[in-house]
Amino acid sequence: MTHPAPAEATAPQRVLQRLILPLEPTPDIIPLYVEQEAARTASAESAAGLRGEQDSRRPSEGGAQDAKVTVAPKGVDVDEVEDRLGLTIPGHSMRSFGTYFNAFPAAYWRRWTPVREVRLSITTSGPGRIIVYRSNARGANQRHEVVSVSGEATTVLTLPVKAFGDGGWYWFDAYAGSESLQVIGAEWTADADLAREDGLISLAMTTMNKVEYCLENIATIAGSADLRKVMDTLYVVDQGTDRLADHPEQLRPLQDELGDQLTLIEQGNIGGSGGFSRGMYETAQAGRSAYVVTCDDDIVLEPETLIRLKTFADFATSPMLVGAHMFDLNNRSVLHSFGEKVDQWRTVFALAQEDGEMSHDFSYGSLRTTPWLHRRADVDYNGWWMCLIPVQVLKEIGLSLPVFIKWDDSEYGLRAKKAGYPTVSLPGAGVWHVSWSDKDDALDWQAYFHERNRLITALLHSPYPRGGRIVRESAFGDIKHTISMQYYTETARLLAQKDVMEGPEGLHAQIGTKLPEIRALAQRFEDAQGDADAAAFPPVSIQKPPNKGRPLQEPRRARLPLWTATSLVKQLAVAPRESARRNPEAAVAQQDARWWRLAKYDSALVSNAEGTRVSWYRRDPGEARALLAEAARTHLDLYRRWPELQERFRSAARDLTSFESWERTFRDNPAPERSSDPAKPAAGSPSK
Fold first, then answer.
1. CA 498, CA 336: separation in Å to the nearest integer?
2. What is the enzyme's main class (predicted)?
3. pLDDT at 649 over 90
4. 389, 405, 438 — which closes off a domain?
5. Which of 55, 409, 478, 602 is catalytic?
């Protein structure tokens, strides 16, 4: 049976999105593709326009510490998912495709493209019913149409995309009758002539000593015929010491399969900004692609994501950046965030939606039962774990800032937005990457790059006098790290501030040398050392536990000035207990290592986020006095000189990001020589 579309919808169509199932079905990711329970809006209040109660099946917003023990809804059996494009529904059962990867994000197509209606074509075999739903920005689920099917059938529905101004999705549920119903495939299409572009993509994948991850992603790309039809080249920029070319037995079959669609480039370690800029540079110089897609090496790739990014960019009313969401590689049903902005008063990252949340678990809160996921999230940037950038944008605003590892993607999004090129984080386009909660990326050597690059971003983009709150918050950060006995981290932050005040002229020259310099500093600091085994340290012993042995709590805002003053007196003027030099006074887990807790001890064993190392922090009043005195001088200078530094950085920005400047940096940072060359890279120096 065929449910005919209106005559006006018979124009040549182009696929916007198709139904997909996981390449490697596992219980943790199946809820992102298909569910087997009927579901409604999480609460009546959300349908009425009020903020809804939380879905009782999912953890609370308070995070892991406040989460209730919950039971996940019953998922689709792994053995049922045998095909990439469809599945068979047992008799008297239902399956919903109102999921992250299979619902259609109508609000985004309504906002950013000229598409005002889509065709949904569903091919089935067997008896049953198809129910099409839509939602609004409040997350209210609304039945749109019901169609009965039997035998071999293609159901074609024309769906308006006009009333999704602030949010909303389309999706369909399929119900089997007395016998099984096979969903053979489904596609969402639109008139092909609405597309502004039909360009190729090139991928810019930066890698450093993550050979297995990188090879797996290359193999996934090689195995996707549909992706390869729209891809010009995958540029793999190898900046490591353990290089892909050192593994010819694994690399060469992929080189043979991909041919000219794989270009391996080796260069020195100049960070993510250097690796991604190289891929951008090569794509623009080659002149064959309309887009470049930045791509981390240590992701798990859903190849359909790349096709969706390219398709959305083709249909966008004007050129724009289109990014993919990040899921937690170690907890694969968990979405890192739905969209992010930069709070320019503070120059910190913020959720794009006030009622959104970090680390949303789709196995407990499905799309259909989570109202805030239905409101469109308008973002300032997208992480470069995967983000499509039109080559037109590269040519107009340049490449990345030469800032190594942090803030390169967010700064680029802000710069593109100023030039009239917005960013969208596209639902239904996602990859899996290690979550920030599993990293200590604000401590040790990375603290330098967080601090320096955040300050540079504020100098370039903050619209507020002297960057709003950033100087004050930076000073608070120095106090927190110092009273936490994190002397190495604080020394790295002070060096970052000093380098910012020296101006932008040295950024390119330092990009390949600053990391070794920062890491070398660690040898001076006990808190930067560590051991894999806590038993390597003396046993924990404390004569008089702080706070009379009661649990330590963060000081309330009203008491914070007095608390800070007394803590500083202790840190700067009171000698640590001698017993604390011999034995750590506490063992503190990484998630508990807050500044207000560590400040109560004279020494402590502190574990890292990965759980691989323990460090012994010991209070040193002399070190603390020197660090805080330097921090006070630095921030007074930074506040005083802000207008001058702002003018210098903004005047230098175009040159810093130019093709010519980056070309010199690529040439100045070649890959280290190797004694043998078993699998020679396809390219090693910048194109002309």
1. 33
2. transferase
3. yes
4. 438
5. 409
Could you tell me which residues come within 8 angstroms of residue 234 by beta carbon, excluding any fewer than 6 positions away?
Answer: 202, 203, 205, 218, 221, 258, 261, 262, 263
- Residues 620, 575 share a domain: yes
Residue 131: Cβ-neighbour burial (10 angstroms; 0-12, 13-18, 19+): middle
User: Averaged over 180-191, what is the pLDDT?
Assistant: 98
| Contact of 309 with 203, CB cutoff 8 Å | no
Q: Do 117 and 170 meet the contact criterion of CB atoms below 8 Å apart?
A: no
Same domain for 468 and 617: yes
Token pair, residue 454, equals 């955040």
CATH of the domain at 96: 3.90.550.60
Judge whether 198 counts as a catalytic residue.
no
Domain count, the chain: 3
669 falls within a domain: no
pTM: 0.93
**Alpha carbon distance 616, 614 (integer Å):** 7
Buried b (16+ CB within 10 A) or exposed e, 552-573: beeeeeeeeeeebeebbebbee
Q: Token pair for residue 662?
A: 């980056």
Are 186 and 123 contained in the same domain?
yes
For position 2, what pLDDT does the model report?
41
Query: What's the domain range around 264?
Result: 201-324+380-438
